[in-house]
Design brief:
Elements lengths: L8 H4 L6 E8 L4 E5 L4 E8 L2 E5 L2 E5 L3 E5 L5 E5 L3 E8 L12 E4 L2 H10 L9 H15 L7 E3 L4 H12 L7 H8 L3 H12 L3 H18 L4 H7 L5 H12 L3 H6 L12
Antiparallel strand pairs: 1-8, 2-7, 3-6, 3-8, 4-5, 4-7, 5-10, 6-9
Helix pairs in contact: 2-3, 5-6, 8-9
């Protein structure tokens, strides 16, 4: 049974403080099935990796990013092994100026500092100082730019056949023309449909799928060499360059940032 991250009334109701936050560190994986709540939720990872399913997409939350989920938006959450993370829950009436759609954002030092302070509050009405800190969190979210950490799924059965095959073997380096012939459609149709249904070109989608899988494998402690081979990179250096461009750090440093957890460290 998953221990609640925060008191249910601070998630399921807009009563009480307009912003509530919590941090969590634990050894075991954490998973919640698809659900929604009246409050908007901003969630981030301090170390490890969390996957979020939302709007027929799979999003990941590496340690320098966060995911914004507007009020009443269906989503599921799963961590990959030990992790440390945080969530902020914002009352629906204060979400009007916030992004109306789910998005991944890159966290700023100011946002993280404000969230860390808010996580120590007791869940009662906010005083003047706490209100100013809570407003900083809302301002940082409102000003954030969307980052690409999601992987949209195409609806066309022929495209889905291709993406399913790639998901099973991301090292498959067949060109678009070869995939089109395999799926029974023209290269032009594949290219046009892929962009229309996912917002990405075929090459961009495959690169994104490889990145998201790389983040999962790194969080699970798989060696960099094994990951590079599994994802079809010609050499380890090419994989490390891609990872650093996407996350701002190398796989080794990402792994080194994991906390040393003890059995009694799980806490709300």
């Amino acid at each position: 049974m998953t221990t609640p991250l925060i008191r249910p009334e601070l998630v399921l109701s807009s009563d009480g403080p307009f912003l509530a936050a919590a941090e969590l560190t634990q050894r075991e994986s954490r998973a919640t099935s698809s659900h929604s709540h009246p409050r908007g939720q901003l969630m981030g990872a301090l170390s490890g990796l969390v996957s979020v399913g939302v709007n027929r997409q799979q999003w990941v939350v590496p340690a320098i990013h966060a995911i914004w989920i507007p009020p009443h938006c269906e989503h599921s959450v799963r961590s990959h092994g030990p992790f440390s993370g945080w969530s902020v829950f914002i009352a629906e009436q204060r979400c009007a100026a916030l992004p109306p759609e789910p998005r991944a954002i890159r966290t700023t030092p100011l946002l993280r500092a404000a969230v860390s302070r808010a996580a120590g509050w007791d869940g009662t009405q906010l005083d003047a100082q706490q209100t100013r800190i809570a407003d900083v969190i809302l301002d940082e979210l409102a000003a954030s730019k969307a980052e690409s950490l999601g992987l949209p799924a195409p609806e066309d059965a022929r495209l889905a056949r291709i993406t399913d095959a790639l998901a099973r073997d991301l090292s498959d380096s067949r060109r678009l023309e070869e995939w089109a012939e395999w799926a029974g459609l023209s290269p032009r149709t594949l290219s046009r449909r892929f962009t229309a249904e996912t917002g990405m070109s075929f090459a961009q989608w495959r690169a994104q799928a490889r990145l998201l899988r790389a983040l999962e494998l790194v969080a699970e402690g798989v060696s960099v060499t094994t990951i590079a081979l599994e994802l079809g990179y010609d050499n380890v250096s090419a994989f490390i360059d891609m990872f650093k461009r996407a996350t701002g750090t190398t796989p080794g440093r990402y792994v080194a940032a994991k906390p040393a957890l003890t059995d009694d460290e799980a806490r709300p």
